[in-house]
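Input chain follows. Return C-alpha cells only.
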Amino acid sequence: MRTLLAGVDTGRNSRTAESLLLSTLGYITDQPDPLDLKIAAAVVAEMREAARTFAPYRETPKVTVFGSARTKLGDPLYRHAYQIAHDLASVGWMVVTGAGPGIMQAAMEGAGRENSFGVSIRLPFEQGANPVIAGDEKYVSMKYFFTRKLMLVKESRAFVCLPGGFGTLDETFELLTLTQTGKGLPAPIVLLDLPGDDYWKTVHAFVTEQLVTRGLVSEADTGLYVLTDSCATASDEITRFYSNYDSIRYVGDHLVIRLRQSPSDEQIDELNASFGHLVSSGRIARVDPFPEEIRHDDHVGLPRIGFEFVKHRSGDLRAMINMLNGFTPQASSPPPEEPSSS
C-alpha cells in the first residue's frame, strides 16, 4: 500500500488513505458483478467531486433547506422559504439545497447565488439545476440519492424543513434518525410551517400520538426538532444553538463537548442534577483536551466538559446542550465547520 501511495501527499490521512486503497483493491480482486463495481466507482467519483466543491468554503457555516420542488412562485410558502434563507444569509450562513425548483429555488434566491450551494439529483423527469445556481462553481450533480443526501447532511450545521412530498419527508425523517441514533451530530432542526398551515403540526401530532404513545420513540426525541411558523423563530433557534455550544467529539467512551464559555462549579452541579442519567460512569466534569484532540489540533483552545455517555439518549443530550446555551448571554455566533467524532 505504501508503495502505491509513494509520492502522493495524503497529509495527516496516510492511515485512512491506506485503508481506502486496501478496501478498493480488495473489492476489485473479489471480482464483483460488473454493475456493483460500476456503482462503487461512481460513488467514489461523486464523493470526490462534492468534497472538492465544498472544500473552499469549509469554514463558513451552512444550513440545508429541504422542501418541495413543486411549490410555485406565487405560493406564500415560496416567499416563506425565500425569507428564512435571506435571514440566515444576512448573519453569515450559506444555504445548501437540492438545486431544483420550488422551495429549493426560493431559498437560493433568498440567500443569493454567492451564498448558495446546489446538490442536485439526476432524474429523467426533471430539469437540471435552477437558474440561480446553474453553472456556478458551488453546484454539483449526483446520480445516487444516498450520496446526495450524505452531502446535504454532512456539510451543514443546521437544517430547515419546509412542506414537501415523499422526498422531503424522507430527508426529514432520515435526518431525525441520524440525530436520534447518534450517527449524526447534534444540530438545530427546524420544521417550518407557513402561518395558518398545519403541515408539520400534523406530522408532529402523528409522532406524538402514534410513535411516542406506542413507545416507538421516546418523548425526549421530540426535542430533536423545533416546530414553528415564524422565520424569525427559526433563525433564532439556529443561531442560539451555537451561542455557547461549539462542537462534540467522541474519544472512546467519553463524549467531549467543546464550549465558548466554561461552566461554573454551580453550573456543573446543575448539569449533573438534570442530566446525570446520561452518564454511565462518574459524573459530568470540566476536562482538559484529550491526547487525540491535541494530536489533531482539534479545538484545543476551547473549554470543554466530558463524561461517559449513555449513547441512546440523544434527545436528552439535545436538552443538555440547550441548558449549556442558557448559561451564557445569547449571541448569534456561527458554528465551526468541522466538529468531529472518533
